[in-house]
Amino acid sequence: MQICKQAVTNNEFNDSWRHLAIQVIITLSNTEPEATAALMEVLEQRRESRNDSPHVQFVRNYSYKFQQQNLYGFMTSFVGTSFTLTCHKEHELYHAVLTVYGEDTPIHSREELKTNAEHLVLLRYVNDLYGNHYMTRRYQPGSRFEEFKNRIQIGLAEIGNYHPHVAVLQLEKTFRRPALRCEEWPNVGFPLGAVPRYQCKLTIRPPNTNDQYEEIAFAPQKQEAKVAAFTRMAIKLFLAGVIDAYSPLLTEEKECVVLVWPATHFGHLYSSRY
User: Fold this and answer.
1) Percent helix, strand, coil in the chain (nearest 5)?
2) Helix (H, G, I), strand (E, B) or coil at 240
3) Partners of 183 in the β-ladder
4) Who wins on pLDDT, 52 or 109?
5) What is the pLDDT of residues 123-166, one digit of tens each?
6) How far is CA 52 from the centre of its chain?
7) Residue 254 to residues 43, 77, 250: CA-CA distances in angstroms?
8) CA distance readout (Å), 205 to 160, 163, 231, 242
């Protein structure tokens, strides 16, 4: 038993020997009380050694480190909208802006550190959702969730239900090249981080017309600039009456399957809906 404990806790032994020693202790723990105590001691020592390692960091699922991902999942899965988080430097301070599509106004935060600005602007919105019982701490619908969802849907209806999560796909399905063109190139001649470094120019020419619509967006990354340009363009085309509002499938519609097959005796098609 002592040899197995030394093999598990001593880093001079390779991984295969340590795993074998753990298996031996686990097997003995089923019948020997002493082995059970040894197993608990070994596991505690291994946990402490991992905590002391500079290369290991334990993070809870609902930690602020995953705040943006968890909030995005909640908004897209339950509410049917999404948001953008931008941050740039202004007068020695970082200005973070959280834009939730369907809300009336964006949320702002200004801090000396970029990470603090982004964290605080997300925290304000998350705490507002939690405080009003729209969302739980585990990013699930709260007791007043329907009230919040209805408010967001009213705001989305004014912009045709277009938000970054769907704008790119819907425009690419509606318009084909060369009616749709996105050009991206880096801005040069500025200090890194001082100004947005990429811009995307999106041009759409609707068929059977002489009209042309353009939208230019700036962002630190190419993909962010592209998504911003597509989202603004989708809203612009909807307000101009060029495209219809986006109509996502309802839950019950997603679960329906339509089967159509030719009839062998009657000469026409039958369809069934499940």
Assistant:
1) 45, 20, 35
2) coil
3) 201
4) 109
5) 999 999 999 999 998 899 999 999 999 999 999 999 999 999 89
6) 31
7) 47, 14, 6
8) 20, 21, 16, 10
- Beta-strand ranges (E) seen in the chain are 83-90, 93-100, 107-111, 180-186, 198-204, 213-219, 258-262, 269-273
Tokens (6 digits) for 69: 């991902």
Check: CB of residue 78 under 8 Å from CB of residue 89: no
Interatomic CA distance for residues 74 and 151, integer angstroms: 16
Compute the C-alpha angle 231/121/144, nearest 5°.
85
Question: Helices marked H in 114-221 — which ranges?
Answer: 114-131, 145-157, 164-174
Largest CA distance in the chain: 86
Q: What are the tokens at 32?
A: 């020997």
Tens digit of each residue's pLDDT (9 = 90 or more) over 30-48: 666 665 566 556 555 555 5
Closest listed residue to residue 186, CA positions, set 211, 152, 221, 160: 221
Model pTM?
Answer: 0.65
